[in-house]
Amino acid sequence: MSRRLLVEERTIGAETFRLERVYCGKPKCKCLAGGAAMHGPYWYAYRRVDGRMVSTYIGRDLEVIGSKRLRAGNPRKRNN
Fold first, then answer.
1. Is residue 78 part of a domain?
2. Burial class of residue 21 (count of CB atoms within 10 Å of its CB; 0-12, 13-18, 19+)
3. How many domains in the chain?
4. Coil, strand, or helix at residue 65?
5. 47: in domain
6. Is residue 79 part of a domain?
7. Which residues sit opposite 22 in a β-bridge?
8. What are the DSSP E strand ranges found in 1-80?
9. First-last CA distance in the chain
10. Which of 19, 31, 61, 65 would be 8's cystine partner, CB 3.0–4.6 Å?
11. Could you report the per-residue pLDDT of 18-71, keeping only the tens digit for each?
12. Which residues span the domain enclosing 40?
């Protein structure tokens, strides 16, 4: 059984965003049944870095990527 089940896919620039249901691997989990019983769906971003495919967990809502990227690109200064 595949660990991930594709639900939706979107490509924006060099990144591909995939909405996936996931299998956790626990032997007695409900997700073993597959399909809608799997966990999620969750968004992941896929891109190539130094020739390797890298995935990044986004979460349940794709709209949060804008705010996450703003925080990552503009770290706040700490007052010491």
1. no
2. buried
3. 1
4. helix
5. yes
6. no
7. 4, 39
8. 4-12, 15-22, 39-49, 52-59
9. 51
10. 19
11. 999 999 989 999 988 888 899 999 999 999 999 999 999 999 888 766 555 544
12. 4-73
